[in-house]
C-alpha cells in the first residue's frame, strides 16, 4: 500500500504537467512506465517513456507503451521542441550529485 504522501505527490505531478488529449509528453527514467501509463490513462495524452535499462523499457512496452526508448538522459534522441512537457521523477544519476544545468530541462520540450 502506498503512503498518502506518495499518492499526493504523484497526483500533484500529474496536475503540474497539465496533460490533455493530443499532447505529447516525455518521462525520463521511466522504469517500467507506471507514471507514463497513469498520465496517458488519466489525460488521453501520448507519453514516450525513456530509461537507460533495456529490461525496464521492455516491461514498459509490455504495459502498452510502444513509444518507449532506451536512452541516456544526457543525450536524448529527440528533436528540439517535440514534447509538450517532460519529467524525471526520482532519477538517480550514478557518479553525479545533480543533473547538469545544460541538459535539463531537455531541449525537446516546446
Q: Kindly report the spatial arrangement of strands forming the biggest sheet.
A: 3-2-1-4
CATH superfamily: Vaccinia Virus protein VP39
The unreliable regions are 99-103
Structural class: alpha/beta
Task: Compute the separation of the termini in Å.
Answer: 36 Å
Gyration radius (Cα, Å) is 13 Å
Return the domain count: 1
Mean pLDDT: 84
Query: How would a crystallographer describe the biggest sheet?
Result: 4 strands, parallel
Give the total of beta strands: 4
Principal-axes shape call = globular
Q: Brief overview, please?
A:
By secondary structure, the chain is α/β, with parallel strands linked by helices. The protein is 30% helix and 16% strand. It has a single domain (4-88), classed as Vaccinia Virus protein VP39 (Rossmann fold, 3-Layer(aba) Sandwich), CATH 3.40.50.150.
Would you kindly provide a written description of the structure presented here, covering whatever features stand out?
By secondary structure, the chain is α/β, with parallel strands linked by helices. It has a single domain, classed as 3-Layer(aba) Sandwich (Rossmann fold), CATH 3.40.50.150. 30% of the residues lie in helices and 16% in strands. The chain is built from three helices and four strands. It has a four-stranded parallel sheet, covered by helices on one side. β2, α3 and β3 form a beta-alpha-beta unit. It is globular. About 5% of the residues have low confidence.
